[in-house]
Every structure is written in structure tokens, then in C-alpha cells.
Specification:
This protein is α/β, with parallel strands linked by helices. Helix content is 34%, strand content 23%. The strands form seven sheets. The protein has a nine-stranded antiparallel beta sheet with strand order 1-2-20-21-22-23-19-18-17. The chain has a five-stranded parallel beta sheet with strand order 6-5-7-8-9, with helices on both faces. Strands 4-3-13-12 form a four-stranded mixed beta sheet, with helices on both faces.
């Protein structure tokens, strides 16, 4: 008889109670029976409440050499008020907002808060658009769309080219002017402004409908959409989060977080959560990429988070370090109450490795949860607030959110409306706004879901892929891309980081696979620093994937899940080409368009030596 798993670390989750209404047209409405509590009218009120609650509490910390630069809530409030007063003097508005080009940092956070106190929208832009683009086309497009009145960058040096475009008709503010650009205002000079009555009036004037942010989605086109995020959307979502996870209010929150603030996960969920709970956020300068995951590892040797947020690619990057270093694992899990993943489904092997590490380090399992949402829903609309024995379920409707499941072929599209969902849609793009909302005002996500248990909506919904990603083989058989992709990544562990499923209009399925640098190097018996291009051709790595796919195929019964061929890609997915978002989610459609040549190799009548044939 198999031994029972150790118990979960006790966490106070809200009870699950979901009402289901089946409509005559085949659609299904789901709602939580619990009511959404009142929420703050503005993010300024949210932050000021935290200051009043815990003025001496550490709020933000970031690396400064071997130590940390730290700010308490009281210290942060003084800078925020000063910068907000300076912004008000400049007459900025929704028609002349603030744009932020650089990544997560204390001054970035303070500038964001200052905008939110002044009632001025802020638009944090993906760093990749400035630093990894050859033509800066997205910076040009965003600048034309927003017409910013002020542009901030941490340092003018790396961002000089982007600033020449974004700051052409705007004031440039920087924490450091290493490029010696003329006319640059230093952030520290803004922080010397004396706040007065105008600031207090501005704070009082902010309502739930005041625009807080323009957040740009990364889609399959080259022109990202600017989602209008209001103060009320963002503060309502915070009450939904705490309402589902009341444990968060029972002890001080400590985050060590890298998730980019230009994205709704990092910038709307995590950043605002610290303020909602008067918690501490250590700004992690790492990310799931070779050479940068080590930064995260260094940080968690010094910081024990109480809740940890990441994407599957992030967990994949740090797991080898946690598995090698028992003391690091004990430090990481010592105060951890919950592990959260989003952006993509967590492969089963990663779940099991995290669970085994937690058991080894603490003697118990740490609850692992997830949620579902989009930039348009700021971000959470479904939340998992119950214990789970494995990945798959993405949650039940948040407090105050109506979820509509609409038949689409053999699937159900999820649509949502509620106080967290944008009603203003996409900035200056009425055509896109109309196209993405139905006649009842539900946001059409394009994501498919299914019930974990059709007889009990309280058991949650399971992500069932993107409607636009699924395709048919020549046999007419549908390929369920989302489900298949997660299963194949797990089957090829630890060598494969992510993959694109190919085969639309073909007889068989093929995959283009990106390697996990650490995992593939381990399989090859090579140095961790071995380039991906070399690992993609390594006989041991290719054989590992071949064996994994052969084993996978042996357990399948139809062409809709069997994989005929695979190519191991010699590079990483490109953020600039929209193959991957800042948080690690693969854009299937964009990758297929960019990798057209590899797809032709994949399905050639006579495949070359770099193609793995598994059927």
C-alpha cells in the first residue's frame, strides 16, 4: 500500500460556495455566494492606510551592492507625496500621462505611487521594447498612442535610444543620467518638492473610475493594446484576493518578487498586495533566464518569503538550486505558507519536485494554488482557495465576479464581468474594445475551460487551452494544444523548458521545443554554462527527448496526442518577437509565425539529422 502524503501546512482559506445557472442558450453563469466587501476608492487610499497601520514597517527593499536599500512605509510616504506634488505642478493627465521605461526598482515603485496620488495615469512599458528591439517599433507606437508628458528611466544610459523617441516631446526624469543627456530632471530633485493643499485635493478627487494605469498586452500582433485600468478595478481585486485567502491578514507578508511591473501579475497583483497588507516586498532583480536565476537564488538565501509568486518557468529555473542545496531549501520553505503559480499551467513534475522539497525541508506539504485572469481583469477573476493534490484546477469565481461559460465548438469559452474588469477597454481603440466584449458586457477572454466535476461547480474549473491555438489535423481530429503542451513538457523533463505544438493541416503532430538550460546540461553531463545551441545538438539530449516521446506515444491511442517529430531549438524564446511574455507565457501563434522555417523542416518528406522522429 502506498504511504499517505504528509499533511498540508495549515492555511486559512475562505470556504467555497458557487451558484450555477444554466441558460436556455447553452451558456452557464457561475457566481460566488459570498459578497465582495467594500473596497478603497483609490490606490492612494490603499497605500495611506498601510502607512497609518505600520509606519515603521519595512515596505520596499532592493539590492545595493551586497546589502539592501530599504524604505519603511513612513519614509516612502514622504517621497511619494513630494513626487506627486511635483507631478501636479506639470499639468499631466490621461492625455499626457507618465511612461516608465525601466524595470522593477524602488524609484519605479515610488513614481508609480506618486502618479496614483496625483490622479495621473502611469504606463510601465516592457523593458524588452527598449533594450531588445532593433527598430524600437513598439516604443514608437506606444508613444504615438499615449503622447506622454513625462518619461522616467532608472538610468538614461541603457535607455538613451528609447528616450530619444518616447521623450521627444516630454520631460525626461531619471534616477541617474549616465548618458549625460541635456535637460534631464533627476528623480531626487522631484523628491525635494514640498507637498501642499493641491496634493490633498488631488487625492480626494480620485474615484473608482479614475484611470490608474495603461497596461500593454503582448499579443500576436506587433501593436500591443493599452488596457485601461482604473483605481477601483485594482482595489476591488485586492479585496477579492484577501477575501479568498484570509490567511494573508494573519501574519506579516514578506515577498521576494521579480515579476515585472509592466505586467498585470507583478504590477497589479503583487505590487498592490504588499500595500493592501502593509507587507514587505524585496525587489528581486533576477528572472528565469541563464545567469539571472542565480540572482533570485542569492536573494532567497537572505529572504524567507511567506507567500511566493512565480510562473512555471521561474520555478523550473530555481528548482535545481533548491534540490542541490539543502540549507537553501530549508531557508526558502521555513516561513512559506503558500506557493502560487500563474501565467501557464504548472507541469506535474515541477509540482511533485516542489512538494517533495517542501516535505523534506519542513515535514509537511506547502499548499500550491493558482488563479486565472488577464490584464483586462486586473488580473484575477478565478481563484483556487482550497487544497489541491496536483495542478490543473484554476479556481472558482472571485467575490463579485460573474463568470459566463459560452459554448464554442466542443469547448466552453470563459467570459467575465465585475468591478475588476475594465469597462473602458483599450485606450483610443474603440474597435478593439467592441470586439472583445459581448452584448451583456462580459469580457471575451478567448480562453477555454471545463469543469473539474460537472456535478459540483465548487470543485473549480480547469484551463482547456486558448480557442485560437487549437487546430485540426488532416484527419479532422482536433488537437487540444494547451493540455498537450503541459503533458509533453512534463514527459520530457528536465531537458525541456517549453514548446510549441505544430501540425495544423498536417497528418501528424510535431513540436518545437525550447531547452531548459540547467536540465539539458545535466542530461548531457555538460557544464551549466553550455550554450543552448550546443545542447540542442547534443546526442544525449536528443536521445533523452526521443526516448521521452517514444514512451509518451506508447501510452496514447490517437493521432491527436501522439507526437511524430520534434526539433530542439538552439535559442530561447524571443520577448521582442512576442514569442514569450515578460512573465514567461508562450504565445503559440506568434512563435508559429516566427518559426515557419523550422516547421517546414519538422514536416519535410525526408527530415534532416536535427529532427527527432518519434513515430
Amino acid at each position: 500500500m502506498q504511504n499517505a502524503k504528509p499533511p498540508f501546512r495549515a492555511v486559512n482559506f475562505a470556504p467555497v460556495a458557487v451558484d450555477r445557472t444554466d441558460r436556455p442558450d447553452g451558456s452557464i453563469i457561475l457566481r460566488s455566494r459570498a459578497k465582495l466587501p467594500a473596497f478603497d476608492p483609490s490606490l492612494a487610499a490603499l497605500f495611506r492606510r498601510a502607512v497609518e497601520k505600520a509606519p515603521s514597517q519595512l515596505y520596499l527593499a532592493e539590492r545595493a551592492g551586497e546589502g539592501w536599500r530599504k524604505l519603511t512605509y513612513e519614509q516612502a510616504r514622504k517621497i511619494v507625496d513630494a513626487v506627486a506634488a511635483a507631478l501636479l505642478e506639470r499639468g499631466l493627465s490621461a492625455e499626457r500621462p507618465v511612461v516608465i521605461l525601466s524595470g522593477n526598482a524602488i524609484d519605479h515603485g515610488l513614481m508609480t505611487l506618486a502618479c496614483q496620488h496625483a490622479g495621473i495615469p502611469v504606463a510601465p512599458i516592457s523593458v524588452a521594447y527598449s533594450l531588445q528591439s532593433s527598430d524600437l517599433a513598439k516604443i514608437r507606437y506606444i508613444t504615438e498612442l499615449l503622447n506622454p508628458g513625462l518619461v522616467y528611466a532608472a538610468d538614461t544610459g541603457p535607455f538613451a535610444k528609447a528616450l530619444a523617441i518616447a521623450g521627444a516631446n516630454a520631460e525626461i526624469v531619471a534616477s541617474s543620467n549616465s548618458a549625460n543627456l541635456p535637460g534631464v530632471t533627476l528623480f531626487e530633485d522631484l523628491a525635494r518638492t514640498k507637498p501642499g493643499a493641491a496634493l490633498e485635493q488631488a487625492v480626494k478627487s480620485i474615484t473608482a473610475d479614475t484611470i490608474a494605469k495603461f497596461l500593454f498586452t503582448s499579443g500576436s500582433t506587433n501593436l500591443p493594446k493599452g488596457v485601461v485600468s482604473t483605481h477601483g478595478m485594482l482595489t476591488a481585486n485586492q479585496e477579492m484576493i484577501v477575501g479568498a485567502w484570509p490567511y494573508l491578514e494573519e501574519s506579516p507578508l514578506v515577498l521576494c518578487d521579480w515579476l515585472p511591473w509592466n505586467h498585470t501579475f507583478g504590477g497589479s497583483f503583487c505590487f498592490n498586495l504588499a500595500q493592501r497588507l502593509a507587507g514587505t516586498m524585496y525587489v528581486d532583480g533576477g528572472k528565469p533566464a541563464p545567469g539571472l536565476a542565480e540572482i533570485t537564488v542569492k536573494n532567497i538565501t537572505e529572504v524567507s518569503p511567506t507567500t511566493y509568486f512565480n510562473v512555471p518557468a521561474g520555478y523550473s529555473a530555481i528548482l535545481p538550486h533548491l534540490e542541490r542545496d539543502e540549507q537553501l531549501a530549508k531557508k526558502f520553505f521555513s516561513k512559506l505558507q503558500m506557493i502560487f503559480y500563474a501565467g501557464a499551467s504548472l507541469p506535474k513534475d515541477l509540482w511533485e519536485r516542489l512538494e517533495n522539497l517542501a516535505i523534506k525541508a519542513t515535514g509537511s506539504r506547502v499548499p500550491m494554488t493558482t488563479a486565472w485572469g488577464t490584464t483586462e481583469t486586473s488580473p484575477l477573476s478565478l481563484m483556487q482557495h482550497f487544497y489541491a493534490d496536483g495542478p490543473g484546477v484554476i479556481g472558482v469565481p472571485c467575490l463579485g465576479v460573474e463568470t459566463k461559460l459560452v459554448p464554442s465548438g466542443n469547448k466552453l469559452e470563459i467570459r467575465v464581468r465585475g468591478p475588476n474588469v475594465t469597462r473602458r477597454g483599450y485606450w483610443k481603440r474603440e474597435d478593439q474594445t467592441r470586439a472583445n466584449f459581448d452584448e451583456e458586457g462580459f469580457y471575451k477572454s478567448g480562453d477555454a475551460v471545463r469543469f473539474a466535476d460537472p456535478s459540483d461547480p465548487g470543485k473549480g474549473l480547469i484551463f482547456d487551452g486558448r480557442l485560437a491555438e487549437d487546430f485540426k489535423l488532416t484527419s479532422g481530429t482536433w488537437v487540444q494544444v494547451g493540455t498537450l503542451r503541459v503533458a509533453l513538457i512534463a514527459a520530457c523533463s528536465p531537458a525541456v523548458q517549453d514548446m510549441v505544438i505544430c501540425g495544423e493541416g498536417r497528418e501528424h503532430i510535431g513540436v518545437l521545443a525550447w531547452l531548459n538550460a540547467a536540465g539539458a546540461a545535466k542530461v548531457a553531463g555538460a557544464e551549466p554554462s553550455t550554450p543552448l545551441a550546443e545542447l540542442s545538438k547534443h546526442p544525449k539530449v536528443m536521445d533523452h527527448v526521443w526516448q521521452a516521446l517514444k514512451k509518451w506515444n506508447a501510452g496514447q491511442t490517437g493521432l491527436s496526442t501522439k507526437v511524430a517529430r520534434a526539433i530542439l531549438l538552439p535559442d530561447a524564446p524571443s520577448i521582442d518577437a512576442n514569442e514569450i511574455t515578460d512573465k514567461g507565457y508562450i504565445n503559440q501563434r506568434a512563435a508559429l509565425e516566427r518559426r515557419a522555417a523550422e516547421i517546414e523542416r519538422l514536416f519535410a518528406a525526408t527530415p534532416d539529422a536535427g529532427v527527432i522522429a518519434a513515430l
